[in-house]
Amino acid sequence: MTDLSRASPMRPLRERPFFLLLAVMLVFVVVYPVLHESVGSQTLFDAFRTAVLVAALRVIFAGRRRVAAGAALAAVLVPAIWIGHAFPGAVPLPVVFALHVLGLAFFGLAVASILWTVYQSSAVSADGVAGALCAYLLLGVVFSHGYWLIEAAAPGSFRGIGESESELADPRHSQIVLQYFSFVTLASVGANDVTPVRAAARGLTVLEAICGQFFVAVLIADLIGKKLAGPREGSAGANTDPR
Questions:
Q1: For residue 105, how many C-alpha atoms fall within 13 Å in the half-sphere facing its CB?
Q2: Quick check: pTM over 0.85?
Q3: CA neighbours within 13 Å on the CB side: how many for 63?
Q4: CA distance readout (Å), 232 to 61, 219, 223
Q5: What is the pLDDT of residue 205?
Q6: How far apart are CA 136 and CA 156, in angstroms?
Q7: Distance CA 147, CA 157 (A)
Q8: Which string of DSSP letters, residue by residue, matches 126-168?
Q9: Confidence at 226, pLDDT banded by 50, 70, 90
Q10: Burial level of 50, CB count in 10 A (0-12/13-18/19+)?
């Protein structure tokens, strides 16, 4: 019989790869907006983005076939995020445009990897639920990159009110307000201070709202179905007589 008192305390962490990513994502989504009000630092925003990217690597590396793609995208993305700090001044638009294309691809790959891992699991676990939440939050990040690409290609695709208007006009801060818009759209809450005014922006907004509802209806329902159909992972044999 296993001596639980001698079990490694790090083992649960190794078996729960999504918890770190979820923690970083929650800090990025909840804590950063509060800090932005008081600090308003682009450096802080880029630091959080880098932390999310590094945490997402652990998820992508879980699949051997995705290692090369994830590592290659990350090797380009991290320097691209910080290029504006290394070379003060306006970053060429093609460089920023490429950054958002790569960001969309990287986080899209992370979402696909998470959903595949969660779907393949035959039972419900705490880490599986954390993974589902990670995929949901990263989906908001993916769409925020898409919104920026639309705004960059056709300036004025989004209209802001008050502070959001000035942030949308600044290429270095537009990603912040568009990420906020992405998350409230994903949750079908709606943002009164940011409005899509052109066809492409409206179309992507509708698509994200549909994806958010579809995600909750299908993936969460799948988790509940697995929970009702069988025991949690690791509970098999829990009632077995050790003798």
A1: 15
A2: no
A3: 18
A4: 25, 17, 11
A5: 94
A6: 28
A7: 9
A8: HHHHHHHHHHHHHHHHHHHHHHHHHHHHSTTSEEE-THHHHHH
A9: confident
A10: middle
Q: Are 94 and 130 in contact (CB under 8 A)?
A: no
Q: Which pLDDT tens digit goes with each residue over 98-137?
A: 888 888 988 898 898 888 887 777 777 777 788 888 999 9
Question: Left if phi > 0, otherwise alpha if psi is -120 to 50, otherwise beta: which for 196?
Answer: beta
Residue bearing tokens 């090797």:
75
Q: Is the distance from CB of 170 to CB of 221 less than 8 angstroms?
A: no
User: Cβ contacts of residue 116 below 8 Å, gap of 6+?
Assistant: 63
Per-state percent for the chain, helix, strand, coil, to nearest 5: 75, 0, 25
CB 42 within 8 A of CB 173: yes
Q: Output the six-digit token pair for 174.
A: 């537009």
Quote the Cα angle for 134-136-174, to 5°.
Answer: 100
H or E stretch covering 196:
strand 194-196
